[in-house]
């Protein structure tokens, strides 16, 4: 029997290795987002228009996959690389790079269908079981590197611990290869599931194949040196070959994308490109000679980011073309906020809310503008808008911070502390959240809703994976 010190080392070693495998990504090469997600540092981005589009892409897929009643939340990652992954059955992370690179909605839908295959197939649960089997097979080899892995974890270096964990598998590498082979099988299973979902929803798999073609081209050189039995995903050309025949047999393979959906995709793609790129890059991709709506949109966003006086005029031109588009009204409100003119931002945000009353982000923007206008008479309305917005979008840190300001300016410091604590919880700063919640309780009547909310925060114990390393 192994001594307790060695057993502890083994557990930590394998935990380091396992933490890098439990997030199931779409791409073959990992971008590092998976590790960032484990540490709670993943760079997220919020945009109502993009989120609405992704929800519409996913809804029919989720329905036929049997998860429509409890769909996964789709979370947008501020990363230009082409990647998507699921950490559990409740969340799907998609990089903005997926949309930026996808020329057709079918490419994004294919990615969503694949990740849905992982969720519906309960691959994350079974991966843990396979990992346990691999641990048994690797126990002797892992002992050799256990000390190094523990040292890496203790130093706070996740990469060091992961590297040591892989090295600890030793020369046979039987356990590692078994686990990675299992992952390759799950990737193939998710690919097959994606084909079924696309057929069931009468959509073409052409976009999905386009993605694998792109990956295969990128791997032409690297594949020469890759050991296909030592990677967690099948090589892209292998995945393409395995899918192409069945995909092309589908009655829907040549079905064109809806023109309306393609138009929305192009608009979101232009918007994200403008937000994520330097204005010079936007000007090169969307020159003034391009008078299309996506090009006008991109240039208007770039002007807003630069706080140009022309931004509002450019956005007004978009509004004249599509007066019922709430996202143009939102952008106009943002432009005024960027220019330090919150009172003028109120009206376009009101219009956005009128056009799309159930969008939490619009309600929060309106509340934010009302608070920033420094009109004490507007604070009760700001409070109502922010609370309504947070009911629909409870993960908005800025919503809680503005609600705290609204409460404080109305003299309700206890409620301000509760709102601040909730915002800190959203940010993952649990220690600071607890301090504010305790302070709030001192000024609240025991048993009231606000006191109970604060007590929930004080009593909260984060999962071990989210606890800060000391």
Automatic annotation (TrEMBL):
<keyword id="KW-0479">Metal-binding</keyword>
<keyword id="KW-0645">Protease</keyword>
<feature type="repeat" description="TPR">
    <location>
        <begin position="326"/>
        <end position="359"/>
    </location>
</feature>
<dbReference type="GO" id="GO:0004222">
    <property type="term" value="F:metalloendopeptidase activity"/>
</dbReference>
<dbReference type="InterPro" id="IPR019734">
    <property type="entry name" value="TPR_rpt"/>
</dbReference>
<dbReference type="InterPro" id="IPR011990">
    <property type="entry name" value="TPR-like_helical_dom_sf"/>
</dbReference>
<dbReference type="Pfam" id="PF01435">
    <property type="entry name" value="Peptidase_M48"/>
</dbReference>
<dbReference type="GO" id="GO:0046872">
    <property type="term" value="F:metal ion binding"/>
</dbReference>
<dbReference type="InterPro" id="IPR051156">
    <property type="entry name" value="Mito/Outer_Membr_Metalloprot"/>
</dbReference>
<keyword id="KW-0378">Hydrolase</keyword>
<dbReference type="Pfam" id="PF13432">
    <property type="entry name" value="TPR_16"/>
</dbReference>
<dbReference type="GO" id="GO:0016020">
    <property type="term" value="C:membrane"/>
</dbReference>
<dbReference type="GO" id="GO:0051603">
    <property type="term" value="P:proteolysis involved in protein catabolic process"/>
</dbReference>
<feature type="domain" description="Peptidase M48">
    <location>
        <begin position="58"/>
        <end position="243"/>
    </location>
</feature>
<keyword id="KW-0862">Zinc</keyword>
<protein>
    <submittedName>
        <fullName>M48 family metallopeptidase</fullName>
    </submittedName>
</protein>
<keyword id="KW-0482">Metalloprotease</keyword>
<keyword id="KW-0802">TPR repeat</keyword>
<dbReference type="InterPro" id="IPR001915">
    <property type="entry name" value="Peptidase_M48"/>
</dbReference>
């Amino acid at each position: 029997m192994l001594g307790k010190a060695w057993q502890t080392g083994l557990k930590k070693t394998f935990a380091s290795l396992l933490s890098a495998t439990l997030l199931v990504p779409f791409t073959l090469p990992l971008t590092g987002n998976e590790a960032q997600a484990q540490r709670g540092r993943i760079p997220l981005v919020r945009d109502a228009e993009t989120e609405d589009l992704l929800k519409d892409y996913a809804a029919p897929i989720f329905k036929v996959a049997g998860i429509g009643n409890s769909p996964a939340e789709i979370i947008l990652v501020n990363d230009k690389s082409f990647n998507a992954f699921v950490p559990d059955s409740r969340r799907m992370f998609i990089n903005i790079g997926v949309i930026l690179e996808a020329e057709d909605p079918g490419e994004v839908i294919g990615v969503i269908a694949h990740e849905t295959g992982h969720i519906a197939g309960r691959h994350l649960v079974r991966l843990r079981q396979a990992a346990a089997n691999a641990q048994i097979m690797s126990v002797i080899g892992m002992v050799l590197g256990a000390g190094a892995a523990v040292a890496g974890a203790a130093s706070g270096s996740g990469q060091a611990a992961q590297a040591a964990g892989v090295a600890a598998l030793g020369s046979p590498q039987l356990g590692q290869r078994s686990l990675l082979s299992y992952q390759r099988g799950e990737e193939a299973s998710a690919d097959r599931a994606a084909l079924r979902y696309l057929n069931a929803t009468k959509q073409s798999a052409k976009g999905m194949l386009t993605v694998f073609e792109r990956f295969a081209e990128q791997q032409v050189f690297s594949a020469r040196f890759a050991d296909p039995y030592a990677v967690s995903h099948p090589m892209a050309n292998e995945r393409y070959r395995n899918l192409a025949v069945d995909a092309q047999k589908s009655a829907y393979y040549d079905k064109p994308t809806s023109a309306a959906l393609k138009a929305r995709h192009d608009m979101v793609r232009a918007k994200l490109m403008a937000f994520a790129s330097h204005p010079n890059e936007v000007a090169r991709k969307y020159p003034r000679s391009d008078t299309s709506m996506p090009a006008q949109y991109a240039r208007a966003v770039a002007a807003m980011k630069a706080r140009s006086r022309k931004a509002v005029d450019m956005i007004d031109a978009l509004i004249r073309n599509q007066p019922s588009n709430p996202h143009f009204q939102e952008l106009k409100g943002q432009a005024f906020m960027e220019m330090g003119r919150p009172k003028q931002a109120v009206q376009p945000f009101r219009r956005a809310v009128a056009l799309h009353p159930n969008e939490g982000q619009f309600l929060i923007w309106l509340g934010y503008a009302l608070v920033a206008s420094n009109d004490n008479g507007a604070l009760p309305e700001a409070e109502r808008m922010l609370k309504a917005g947070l009911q629909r979008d409870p993960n908005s840190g800025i919503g809680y911070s503005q609600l705290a300001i609204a409460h404080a300016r109305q003299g309700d410091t206890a409620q301000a502390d509760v709102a601040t604590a909730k915002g800190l919880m959203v940010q993952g700063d649990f220690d600071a959240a607890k301090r504010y919640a305790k302070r709030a309780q001192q000024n609240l009547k025991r048993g009231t809703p606000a006191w109970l909310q604060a007590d929930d925060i004080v009593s909260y114990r984060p999962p071990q994976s989210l606890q800060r390393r000391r």
